[in-house]
Write a structure and sequence with these properties.
Helix content is 15%, strand content 42%. The chain is mainly beta. It has a single domain (13-251), classed as S-adenosyl-L-methionine-dependent methyltransferases, CATH 2.20.130.
């Protein structure tokens, strides 16, 4: 059984873009144009901060300087980090969304760690700059090992306040007698903001993955989970951010 090493980053959280969550958009805010989405992808992948600084405007929910600092920290952890930005599926009211995929890798203590993260969000623009965003779904996986251990992270994107729901990290192949260990913990907003890796207690797992029933808080917002799964061939870290809403109609935007 592998012993878990300190990972370079357990949390990706909203940091795939670093944009703020839940901002109050000006009345004249509009969705970003295709050219602005291209500019966002180019700015995120640029080596310097100037393109991103020019594209974003600080305001409610968006601190441009903090965003650039977090982006540089991510690049230090994953030197080949790259972003892909494209149009996502429209909402029920026709509002467009943006899909952002982030990949990267690094070598730590002789092991290669590979990052994969996905976000679906809405972004608002004033026609020239991006003003903020609203997160709809977000998942990240960080895996060690030369061969990828297939896993499936199952958790809802949105739940009602106070609702009980399942967060599962499942190994999607036969275990053939292999033993697993794992753990899950809630991540506070302060830990998300600080990009802090929360402590995780590992326990032996009796099945083919990590299965946990959790409860949403009694107030609306975002709930973040960090999961750690130790497999004989890999260490797998996952994060999942879940929207907590008070209105059932908001479960499917």
């Amino acid at each position: 059984m592998l012993r878990p090493r300190p990972l370079p980053l357990l949390l990706i959280g909203a940091l795939c873009t670093g944009l703020g969550v839940g901002f109050d958009a000006p009345a004249r805010a509009i969705p970003p144009s295709p050219s602005q989405l291209q500019a966002l992808e180019k700015a995120l992948n640029a080596r310097d901060d100037a393109p991103l600084a020019a594209l974003l405007r600080s305001g409610p929910g968006l601190d441009s300087a903090q965003l650039r600092q977090r982006r540089q920290l991510l690049r230090q952890s994953f030197p080949d980090l790259s972003w892909r930005v494209k149009a996502g599926p429209p909402l029920r009211d026709g509002q467009p969304t943006v899909a952002i995929a982030t990949t990267g890798s690094r070598i730590l203590d002789g092991s290669t760690y590979r990052l994969e993260a996905q976000q679906i969000l809405t972004i608002e623009s004033d026609g020239r700059q991006l003003l903020g965003e609203d997160l709809l779904s977000e998942t990240s996986l960080l895996r060690s090992g030369e061969k990828t251990v297939p896993v499936v992270l199952q958790a809802p994107d949105a739940v009602l306040t106070g609702q009980r729901y399942d967060v599962d990290l499942i190994v999607d192949e036969p275990l053939d007698g292999a033993l697993l260990a794992g753990g899950i913990t809630a991540v506070s907003p302060a830990q998300v903001a600080a990009m802090a890796s929360p402590p995780l207690e590992l326990g032996a797992l009796g099945g083919g993955g990590l299965f946990k029933t959790v409860r949403a808080p009694l107030h609306a917002g975002l709930q973040t989970w960090a999961l750690l799964l130790v497999h004989p061939r890999a260490i797998i870290t996952a994060t999942k951010r879940v929207r907590v809403v008070a209105d059932r109609r908001a479960l499917t935007p």
